[in-house]
């Protein structure tokens, strides 16, 4: 132990000792990242130097501070140590070690490279095949001004909707502002048309639902829960990202009235309910919602279902003959 009067000298020596232990260098004298083992070793050395018994101290804990430019318009990215990807990364690593890596993960990690590569910018035959009339989806998004997709956007939509054999993961890369969200809208339209075709196969809407046997009690009533026919499943879309704001932007833009052509006046889908969900933005239909965290999900349920004036529960009750 050091006497209190000798602390200035001891502090200098302790600082120098810690610096030597936590400042790590690799080949060529380059600094390398500090790891947990080095931090623990430096902590144990410090406890030993000041003469504290291990029972008097708590093991080290850490907080990461990341600087975010104060004028930046984008939300801060989550630091790696606080990322919700860690469990997925650990699961991927375990699969690789065990040798049970799925095909998509192998391709993503570069472990299974394609035998051949096709350059759509250099091979005219490839892009011609991608935009062949037979590949076009039956529906497209009625964009403002009725502007069509550009060549490469349309090719990406056609290939993504073609159910190519052996292709389960279809990436589309592009910097901000190149039309990825615009492309996504046409995929939404294509899926809506496909679902409509599946719905037309039923001569009676009631046949699309079957008894599940589950009858939960809600307040004073027993409500039967039905199963949706498998032919009507698989048309859902989930927008996910590490950037919450980006997901919210896509989810808010899809139902916005500004997202469709001004002459598409007949395109309205539960507009009153959609307006109640979107807040200040006028909507054309109930086609997407901002979910994610608990507060967003609660607000969506209250506006979409429980609202006594604009909620879907009141609408359906009125439709079956119970005046609201």
% residues in beta strands? under 5%
The assigned structural class equals mainly alpha
Mean pLDDT equals: 85
Question: Major sheet: order of its strands?
Answer: 1-4
Percent of residues in helical segments? 25-40%
Element pattern in H and E: HHHHHHHEEEEHHHH
For the sheet with most strands, the description reads: 2 strands, antiparallel
DSSP strand count: 4
Pick out the low-confidence regions: none
List the total number of helices.
Answer: 11
Radius of gyration: 29 Å
Q: Tell me, briefly, the overall form.
A: extended
Descriptive notes:
- With about 325 residues, the chain is mainly alpha-helical.
- A hairpin with a 2-residue loop joins strand 2 (about 215-220) and strand 3 (about 220).
- The protein has a two-stranded antiparallel ribbon with strand order 1-4.
- The longest helix is centred in the middle third of the chain and has 20 residues, at about 180-200.
- Helix 9 (about 270-280) packs antiparallel against helix 10 (about 295-305).
- Helix content is about 40%, strand content about 5%.
- The mean pLDDT is about 85.
Keywords, separated by commas or semicolons:
single chain, 324 residues, mainly alpha, two-stranded antiparallel ribbon, two-stranded antiparallel sheet, 39% helix
